[in-house]
Amino acid sequence: MNEKEVKESENIDNNHEENRDLILKLDKQVALGLWIQVIGQVIESTALSQLLVLNGDPSDPNLKDEETIVLGSWMQTIGQLLEAIGVSEQIPVKNGTEEIDIITAGQKIAIAGDWLQGFGALLEAIAGTNILTKEQISSIIAKHVIP
Prior knowledge:
Blueprint: H1 3-55, H2 63-90, H3 97-144
Helix pairs in contact: 1-2, 2-3
């Protein structure tokens, strides 16, 4: 190997090391962002639960849908937590075959969290749509049927 090839090889090694450091830094930022979202989701779900308790009139025709919204919110919270745990697990902590196993486990946890969040959001959207539809029907009946 001549001197030029040695220098090029060293430059490639240096660039690879810098990229690895940058990737690790960005992975940590992603994980931090997810943990911040977990905190926000816990605050939202807790507040929705408290509102349901305070406003939960058993005769309210929307009560079942409001309960479903709270359920969906808590599902999203648990999903967000799983995603944050899974992504955090993927941040490389050591080299070797064990790292691949840890990263794969982290990916599985994060994906399960994503699915749970999606299902929770779907429940909230369906229940919210039901409430809106009932309110619109009541409004139409009040304006046009009942004088």
